[in-house]
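Practice problem: predict the structure.
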Amino acid sequence: MTNKKTVLILCTLDTKREETRYLKYKFKEIDVLPLLMDLSMRGKEKSRAELTPSHVASAGGSTIEEINKSKERSTITNIIIEGATKIAKDLYAAGKIDGIMALGGSTGSLMATDVMRALPFGIPKLMISSTAALPGLSTKYIGTGDILLFHSVIEIAGVTDMLANIMDRACYAMKGMINYVNNTLSTTSKKTIAMTMLGPCEQCASTVRKALEKKGYQVTGFSAAGVGDRAMEKMIAEGFFQGVIDLAPGGVGEHYFGFMRDGGPDRLESAGKKGIPQIISTCSVNHMTPSRSKYKKEFHKRRKYDLDKFRTWLRLSTDELKEVANEFARKLNHSKSPVKVMVPLQGWSSVDCQGNPTYDPKEDRIFIDTLRNKLNSRIEIIEVDANMEDAAFSQQITQTALELF
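Answer:
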């Protein structure tokens, strides 16, 4: 019987054998049990991992012989990722691993972090990557996962003194996470609420959060800028929350139109499928944020509001407001739990206020009326004669949350 913790090491022994061996023996030296899963697709030597490429290929619905023969790199890569993900999830569900770690370049990092993101929030995940700083790659590696990305700076090729130093630090960091942090996130006695937040509704979010915390709730915020939306939907589906206050669901329209704050195809759906009560509001729903490279000619004629020198919000057209309202209704009508839609009639954010160029309550009414006509009778729309950032609206949100949750 041992109290030692186990770390699953995702490796490619065909290309990183020496470096993986170093990690393995370093963990043993510091009283952590390493478990190797070999993701190699072209290895000629016999794998010495506990979980060989044959195990991984089989779990992915193929064989290592078929993978070795194939010239379809993307296909076999997906098979290996699928197999590794299934094995990792099974190991975690059985309580056989306490953390997951990998090292590699761009391909290795992409594969390993795909597997890591499939594991629940809370289990330590550490990726040593020589390409962590390349533009665009770090966001692909992390995505919606709580992954610690360790930039090696130098190439992972041969165990030099510098690389050994990097791997030593990573091993001790992992040991600290699995030994000294409670990673089970056991159920708290407090009700946990997910809340979307965004700069233009920050005052409302902060006021509601503090008011609910005084009543014994635990409120977890998510930045509704795209990635945060996706992470929230994933964590709702995994059962982390008992209620949702979605102040800024603009990611629904952004996904529908393909803009920058795209909240993903599951936006506004997870709570309904899970049977969790939710309060929906409208911060940013009447604006869009297309990337400059996707600007149409007519976009330059739109009413706009510059949040800062990097971000510009454009006003949705009346037809677009109807389309987004239809999407809201389609998603919310499938909900298996109570839903309240709360609309501030004097502006849907701090950006959306009298005197600003995109402020237009009359056009906003088109969204409200379309939504009301499409929603089923179980879902109530509550109109509040205030701006979203007004105290009156925050109070109404809080009161509704106390009644609903």
